[in-house]
Automatic annotation (TrEMBL):
Residue ranges crossing the lipid bilayer per the database entry: 27-50, 62-80, 86-107, 172-194, 206-228, 235-257, 269-293, 305-326, 338-356
PANTHER family for the chain: GH07001P-RELATED (PTHR48021:SF1), PTHR48021
Listed name of the protein: Major facilitator superfamily (MFS) profile domain-containing protein
Lineage: Eukaryota, Metazoa, Ecdysozoa, Arthropoda, Hexapoda
NCBIfam families: SP
Organism the protein comes from: Xylocopa violacea (Violet carpenter bee)
UniProt family annotation: Belongs to the major facilitator superfamily. Sugar transporter (TC 2.A.1.1) family.
């Protein structure tokens, strides 16, 4: 897992170099396609690696760092994108994965990876490095060994495993979280912030509006990281879905009033406020938590395939939603498009309430037992 993350970081460096040196649209597209591949690989491998190295009490907080750093990256792109051209922005963007690769190359493989290979001594060294020399690692190491041995006794073909009700339940949960994360319309808000504010007739310069939205993302994701292991995953997901439903509904009403020629100049501030609340609540729940849970809910037998397929589904939906948002809003109107997002967020809230388990403070082994017993 550590090697896959390193490879994705190295690939990202080369991709940005391709974009920086691009002298044709084709070269630029190839670079962007490859950055998408490496980014997708990281978003699959990262949560699994974090789940395998983290202590139970802080696993949620560590898992949320992916979303926190993603929002920081988005904010920086908003800030630099307002003041510099595309080539300089690409150079700045290319420096970050270079720093990451230089630093992460010194990280150890996860102890679970070594135990799967039968290398107990390397697993012990890895866990000692992660926990510190003064920490008694033997109980935790033995717990991982017992869990893997139990899984190995029940090892069957992937085709048989996939028919297990527990595995099917985890797949439904994982895929469902990814589906509702993207069908909430978040990437429409992020990628089309400028055009949304322009269509809303906001008096605030659109570049500065996007910077405000980006800052809200960082604040919310950071707050989520502080409270996710205290409040729990389910409550944050529910709050996130409900508030996203309300704010997209409000945006729909605003654009409906604009479309029927009602004077909305007195509430020109409403789109910015609604989008800020939307962004805050997304990054409190449906932003970081689905990625965190990818490393928690899948059994070791299917974790690699299940997490990667869930990540693939996520990025396919990113493409579909962002690619066809313009066509959809032209066909049915911007107001109806946001109402559609509101309905999907509401369905997402029911999905979480009915199917998603609480994983706060539980070991990976305990989560698997709960999924089995909860059938």
């Amino acid at each position: 897992m550590d090697q896959l993350i390193n490879c994705s970081g190295l690939c990202n460096n080369m991709c940005w170099l391709l974009i920086i040196l691009a002298n044709s649209v084709t070269m630029f597209y190839i670079g962007r396609f490859m950055t998408g591949l490496s980014g997708g690989a990281f978003f699959v491998a990262g949560p699994i690696y974090i789940a395998e190295i983290a202590e139970n009490d802080i696993r949620g907080a560590l898992g949320s760092y992916i979303q926190i750093l993603t929002t920081i990256g988005i904010l920086l792109s908003y800030v630099f994108g307002t003041f510099v051209n595309m080539r300089i922005l690409s150079i700045i963007s290319g420096i970050v994965p270079l720093i990451f690769f230089t630093v992460f190359v010194f990280m150890p493989e996860s102890p679970i990876y070594y135990l799967k290979k039968g290398d107990v001594e390397s697993a012990r060294k890895s866990l000692t490095r992660l926990r510190g020399a003064c920490y008694n690692i033997e109980n935790e190491l033995q717990s991982h060994k017992n869990a893997l041995e139990e899984n190995s006794k029940n090892t069957v073909s992937f085709r048989t495993v996939i028919k297990s009700k527990a595995v099917l339940k985890s797949l439904v949960i994982g895929y469902g979280l990814m589906i509702f994360q993207q069908l909430s319309g978040v990437n429409v808000v992020i990628f089309y912030t400028n055009s949304i504010f322009q269509q809303a007739g906001s008096t605030l310069e659109s570049g500065y509006s996007t910077i405000i939205v980006g800052a809200m993302q960082v604040l919310a994701a950071s707050t989520s990281g502080l409270i996710v292991d205290r409040a729990g995953r389910r409550i944050l997901l529910l709050m996130s879905a409900i508030f996203m439903c309300l704010t997209t509904c409000i945006l729909g009403v605003y654009f409906y009033l604009s479309r029927i020629k009602v004077d909305v100049s007195s509430i020109g501030w409403l789109p910015l406020v609604a989008i800020c609340i939307y962004i805050i609540m997304f990054n409190m729940g449906f932003g970081p938590i689905p990625w965190t849970m990818m490393g928690e809910i899948f059994s070791p037998e299917v974790k690699g395939v299940a997490a990667s397929s869930a990540g693939f589904l996520n990025w396919v939906l990113v493409f579909i939603v962002t690619k066809f948002f313009g066509d959809l809003s032209t066909a049915i109107g911007l107001d109806a498009t946001f109402w559609l997002f509101a309905v999907l967020c509401l369905i997402g809230a029911f999905f979480v309430y009915l199917l998603v388990p609480e994983t706060k403070g539980k070991s990976l082994e305990a989560i698997q037992r709960e999924l089995n017993s909860g059938l």
